[in-house]
Design goal:
There is one protein chain. By secondary structure, this protein is an alpha+beta fold. 58% of the residues lie in helices and 13% in strands. The chain contains 29 helices and 22 strands. The protein binds adenosine-5'-triphosphate. Adenosine-5'-triphosphate binds next to helix 8. It comes from Chanos chanos (Milkfish).
C-alpha cells in the first residue's frame, strides 16, 4: 500500500503543477522509494542538478525550385543575417507593405533562433545539428518531443520524412536508435508498453496475436508485396546467421541510406548489462479527436473511423487509450510502420478533403535487464498542420466547434507556451497553463511541466508569394523561442517502470515477482467482474476470501479518496479559471467604460469645434455676401441701443414739455374752478404758489433750453466754419504741397544742370591747363630763332589771344558764379 500512497501523493503534486505550471524555484524534494536500480540512481544524479535550458527552436529555409525562380519568387524576403538571426522583408506589393507604408519597422522584421539552417543544408547535417542529441538522450532514459511546424509548401514533409534516397529526421532518428542499440536488442515482443509508463507482460497467446497483427499490418503495404522475394531471401539468410551476425540484419534490410557501417562509438555502452525493446505508434489528432493511423481506414466512406480517448494513469501521466503499439526490430520495420500510417493518413485525407490533421509518431524504448524493465523513455515527433491549412480545413461547423470553443490547437499551444514563459519569468507569478484545453498539449504536458525536453523545427518557404504565411509562422515561433525549460526533479517512483498484469497492477518489485501484487491483481479482477467472484467463492481458502474482502474495502476507500481529490483539483482549477475570467471581464468592462467616456469627451469637443467652425464660416459668408452694406452685429446692436435711448429721451422730453402745459391748464382750470367751485382759501393759495413756482421753473428751463439751443446752433455754425476753414487749409496745403513738389522737381533738374556744367567746366579747365602747358613749352622753344608757326601751334596762339575766346572765358566765369549763387540760395 506504500506504493499506492506515494502515487497518490505524486498525483497531488502533478495536480498542483498542472494548475500553476512548473515553479522553477521549487526545491522541495519529491518522495523517493527505496531499493531502486542502478539506472534509476544514475538518473537521480541528473535529477539533483536540474538543467535549465531554453526550448530550442530551429529554422530551416527551403530551397527555391527552378520553377519558382523563373516565376520571380526570389525577392530577397528572407535574409539570413547570422546563424541565429533572420530578417524578413516584405516583398513589393504585399499586404504587409500596404498596411505598413508609414511604419518601416513593419516591413522589416528580425527573428532569432537557436540555429538557422540555410537552404542548401543536407538532411544529414540538419539531423546532426538539431535532434541528434535528443535521440541520444532517449537512450539515457529522457523523454522528448520534437515539433515540426511551417507554412504550406514550406518543406515540413521533406524535413520530417524526406525521400527514400534522402531521408528526413524521423527515419534518421530511427536509424540512430537502432544503430546505438545494435547488439543489445530484445528480440521478443512479450514486454509491451501499457497505459503511460507501465509495461504489460504478454502471454504466449497474446504474443502470437501480436505477431500476426504485425504481419497483417506489413502486408497492407503494397510495396511489401513487391519486395517479398527480396525480404524472404534476406530473412532466410539472416536466420542462418549466428546471433552476433544477426545484429546487423536490420541494416542489411535497410535501403541504401541506412546501410552505413555501425559506428561503435555511437552504441550505448554504459556498463549496464541490459537490452532494449523498441515500440512505435503513429496517430493523428483531427478536430480534437485522436485516430490511430495503424488501424486500417474503414472500407466504406459512410463508416466512421473509431476515435480514441486520452486518459491519465494513477500517477497523472496522460496516454492514448487503446493506441496500437507495434514492436519493431529494425529501422526498416519502423519505416514500414511510418509508411502504413502515411497511407492511412492519405486515405483519410482523400475521403474528406478538408481532413488535415496534426500527426504524431512516437518511439518507446524499454530498457530491460533480465525479466525486469529498468526504464522506459519516449521520443515523439509531432507534425503540426500548417496555419493556412488549419484555417482552410475548418469548415463552418467545425470552426464553430473548434474555434468557437477556443479549441484551436495552435492558439492553445501558444497560450500554454506563453503561460509557461510567464511562470518562468521571475518565479513570482504562476499563471494557469491550459494544457488540458487540447489533446496535443495534454498528451505532452510533461513538456509544459518542465519534465521533458522539447525542440521545435520551423520550416519556411522563401517565396515572395508565401510571405504573409511565413510571417505568421515566424511570429508563432517567436513565442516559443523565449521559453526556458526547467527540468524538474522527478520522483524515482515515476521513473521506475512497473511490470503490470492485464489489470494494470505492478507485478514486479525490485526485479522479483511480487506474489502479493499478483494476488491483489487477481482479487481486483474479481472485484471488477461479478462472474469471477463466484469462482472465488468456491475456493477453499477462507483467508483468501477475507483478504479479498479487506482489499475490496481498501480499494473502495482509495477510489473514493481519489475521486474526492480529483473533484477538489477540478474545483480548484475551475475556481481559478472562473476568477481569471471574472477578472478579465471586469478589466474589459472597465476598459470599455473608460474608452466610452473618452470617446464621448472627444465627440463633444469635436462637435463644439465643428459648431464654432460652422458659425465662423456662416459669418464669413455673410460678410462676403453683404460686401460694403454689411454692418457688424456689435455695431448694429449698439446703434439700436442708441436709438432706444434717444426714443426714451424723446418721450421724457415730451412729457416734460406736456407737464407745464397741463400744469398751466390745470392752473387755469383751477382758477376757473376756484371761481365756480367752492374751495378752501388756504388750499387754493398753496396750489397757486406751487403752480407759479412750477411755471417759473418751466420758463427758466425753456429759457435755458433756448439758450443752449442757440449755443448749439452757434457751436454748430462755428464747427461748420472751422470745417470750411479746415477744408480750405487742407486745399491750400495740398496746393502748397504740389508747389513744393514742383519746386523740388525743378531743383532736381537744376542740380542736374549744375552737375553737367561742373563737369563741362572741369573738362574745360583740363583743356586749359593742357593748353597752358603747351604754351609754356612753345614760349620756351621760341627763345631760339623764330620759325614760322604752322598747324596746331599757330592756331593755339590765335586761340589764346583772340577776343572771341576772351569773351568765352568771361561767359564761363559768369556761369560758374551763377551756379555758386544758386547753390547758396538753395
Ligand atoms: N530543403 C529542401 N531542399 C530542396 N527541396 C525542398 C526542401 N524542402 C522542401 N523541398 C521541396 O519543396 C516541395 C514542398 O515540400 P514539402 O512537401 O515537404 O512541403 P510541406 O510543407 O510538407 O507541404 P504541405 O503544405 O503540403 O504540407 C517539395 O517538392 C520538396 O521536395
Amino acid at each position: 500500500m506504500t506504493t499506492l500512497h506515494d502515487m497518490t501523493h505524486e498525483c497531488t503534486m502533478l495536480g498542483k503543477m498542472e494548475s500553476t505550471a512548473c515553479d522553477p524555484h521549487h526545491d522541495a524534494p519529491l518522495p523517493e522509494i527505496s531499493g531502486v536500480s542502478s539506472i534509476a540512481s544514475a538518473q537521480s544524479e541528473s535529477v539533483e542538478s536540474p538543467e535549465n535550458q531554453q526550448l530550442r527552436v530551429y529554422l530551416r529555409v527551403r530551397l527555391l525550385s527552378k520553377e519558382e525562380l523563373t516565376k520571380n519568387e526570389d525577392q530577397g524576403c528572407v535574409v539570413l543575417e547570422s546563424p541565429e538571426t533572420v530578417l524578413l522583408q516584405a516583398p513589393r506589393g504585399s499586404g504587409s507593405i500596404k498596411s505598413s507604408e508609414k511604419n518601416i519597422s513593419h516591413q522589416r522584421q528580425k527573428f532569432t533562433f537557436s540555429q538557422i539552417f540555410r537552404p542548401g543544408v543536407t538532411q544529414a547535417d540538419f539531423f546532426e545539428g538539431t535532434i541528434k542529441t535528443q535521440v541520444k538522450e532517449l537512450l539515457r532514459g529522457k523523454n522528448s518531443l520534437v515539433v515540426n511546424y511551417g507554412g504550406t509548401n514550406s518543406g515540413k514533409t521533406h524535413t520530417l520524412q524526406g525521400t527514400s534516397k534522402d531521408p528526413g529526421i524521423l527515419p534518421r532518428a530511427l536509424r540512430a536508435v537502432f544503430r546505438r542499440i545494435c547488439g543489445r536488442q530484445y528480440k521478443r515482443a512479450d514486454l509491451k508498453p501499457y497505459l503511460s509508463k507501465d509495461i504489460e507482460q504478454l502471454d504466449a497467446d497474446q504474443l502470437k496475436a501480436e505477431e500476426s497483427s504485425k504481419e497483417t499490418l506489413f502486408s497492407s503495404l503494397q510495396e511489401v508485396r513487391n519486395t517479398t522475394k527480396f525480404l524472404s531471401l534476406s530473412l532466410s539468410l539472416s536466420l542462418s546467421l549466428s546471433l552476433s551476425l544477426s545484429l546487423s540484419l536490420s541494416l542489411s534490410l535497410s535501403p541504401s541510406p541506412f546501410s552505413s557501417p555501425v559506428d561503435r562509438a555511437d552504441r550505448v555502452d554504459d556498463g549496464v548489462p541490459c537490452v532494449f525493446s523498441v515500440w512505435v505508434a503513429f496517430y493523428e489528432i483531427y478536430n480534437e479527436k485522436v485516430y490511430d493511423l495503424l488501424q486500417p481506414s474503414p472500407a466504406t466512406k459512410t463508416k466512421r473511423r473509431p476515435s480514441l480517448r486520452v486518459c491519465e494513469d494513477g500517477a497523472g501521466n496522460p496516454y492514448v487509450k487503446d493506441l496500437r503499439w507495434v514492436n519493431v526490430l529494425s529501422a526498416e520495420e519502423a519505416s514500414k510502420i511510418l509508411r502504413v500510417g502515411n497511407k492511412n493518413l492519405t486515405a483519410a485525407k482523400t475521403s474528406q478533403p478538408s481532413n488535415r490533421s496534426h500527426s504524431i509518431f512516437t518511439i518507446k524504448l524499454l530498457r530491460i535487464s533480465g525479466t525486469d524493465v529498468q526504464g522506459i523513455s519516449e521520443f515523439s515527433i509531432c507534425d503540426l498542420l500548417s496555419p493556412e491549412r488549419c484555417s482552410k480545413a475548418r469548415t463552418l461547423s467545425e470552426g464553430l466547434r473548434e474555434g468557437g470553443n477556443g479549441k484551436n490547437l495552435l492558439a492553445i499551444l501558444g497560450k500554454c507556451i506563453t503561460a509557461l514563459r510567464n511562470n518562468q519569468g521571475d518565479g513570482s507569478k504562476s499563471s494557469y497553463v491550459p494544457f488540458r484545453e487540447s489533446k496535443l498539449t495534454w498528451l505532452f504536458k510533461g513538456v509544459f511541466c518542465g519534465r521533458d525536453q522539447a525542440s521545435m523545427i520551423i520550416n519556411i518557404n522563401p517565396c515572395a508569394s508565401a510571405y504573409e504565411e511565413t510571417l505568421n509562422v515566424m511570429r508563432f515561433s517567436a513565442i516559443t523561442k523565449q521559453v526556458v525549460q526547467v527540468f524538474q526533479p522527478r520522483s524515482l517512483e515515476s521513473l521506475a517502470p512497473r511490470l503490470v498484469g492485464r489489470n494494470g497492477k505492478p507485478l514486479l518489485r525490485n526485479g522479483v515477482i511480487d506474489d502479493q501484487a499478483v494476488d491483489d491483481c487477481l482479487s481486483e479482477e474479481e472485484l471488477l467482474d461479478g462472474e469471477d467472484e463466484a469462482d472465488v467463492s468456491i475456493l477453499p481458502q477462507e483467508e483468501l476470501l477475507s483478504l479479498v474482502e479487506s482489499l475490496r474495502v481498501k480499494l473502495l476507500a482509495e477510489r473514493r479518496k481519489n475521486l474526492v481529490q480529483e473533484i477538489e483539483i477540478r474545483k480548484e482549477m475551475g475556481d481559478i479559471m472562473l476568477q481569471q475570467i471574472m477578472e478579465c471581464e471586469e478589466l474589459h468592462s472597465r476598459q470599455i467604460a473608460d474608452l466610452k467616456e473618452s470617446h464621448e469627451e472627444k465627440m463633444t469637443s469635436t462637435f463644439e469645434m465643428y459648431k464654432e467652425a460652422l458659425k465662423e464660416h456662416a459669418y464669413q459668408c455673410a460678410v462676403e455676401e453683404q460686401g460694403d452694406d454689411y454692418v457688424p452685429v456689435e455695431e448694429y446692436t449698439a446703434e439700436q441701443e442708441r436709438v432706444k435711448e434717444l426714443q426714451r429721451r424723446l418721450v421724457e422730453l415730451e412729457q416734460d414739455c406736456q407737464e407745464p402745459k397741463t400744469g398751466s391748464h390745470t392752473v387755469l382750470t383751477k382758477e376757473n374752478a376756484a371761481q365756480t367751485s367752492p374751495h378752501t382759501p388756504s388750499q387754493d393759495s398753496a396750489d397757486t404758489v406751487r403752480y407759479k413756482l412750477l411755471y417759473k421753473e418751466k420758463c427758466a428751463v425753456e429759457q435755458l433750453c433756448g439758450e443752449k439751443q442757440e449755443l448749439i446752433v452757434s457751436l454748430e455754425s462755428r464747427i461748420r466754419e472751422l470745417n470750411e476753414t479746415l477744408h480750405e487749409a487742407g486745399e491750400s496745403y495740398m496746393e502748397k504741397l504740389a508747389e513744393v513738389k514742383q519746386l523740388e522737381n525743378s531743383l532736381a533738374y537744376e542740380e542736374q544742370e549744375i552737375n553737367r556744367i561742373q563737369s563741362d567746366v572741369a573738362e574745360k579747365e583740363a583743356e586749359l591747363t593742357a593748353l597752358r602747358e603747351e604754351l609754356a613749352r612753345l614760349s620756351h622753344e621760341s627763345v631760339g630763332p623764330s620759325r614760322p608757326r604752322r598747324g596746331l601751334l599757330a592756331n593755339i596762339k590765335e586761340t589764346v589771344t583772340s577776343p572771341r575766346n576772351a569773351s568765352l572765358c568771361r561767359t564761363f566765369r559768369k556761369s560758374v558764379r551763377a551756379t555758386s549763387t544758386l547753390r547758396k540760395k538753395t
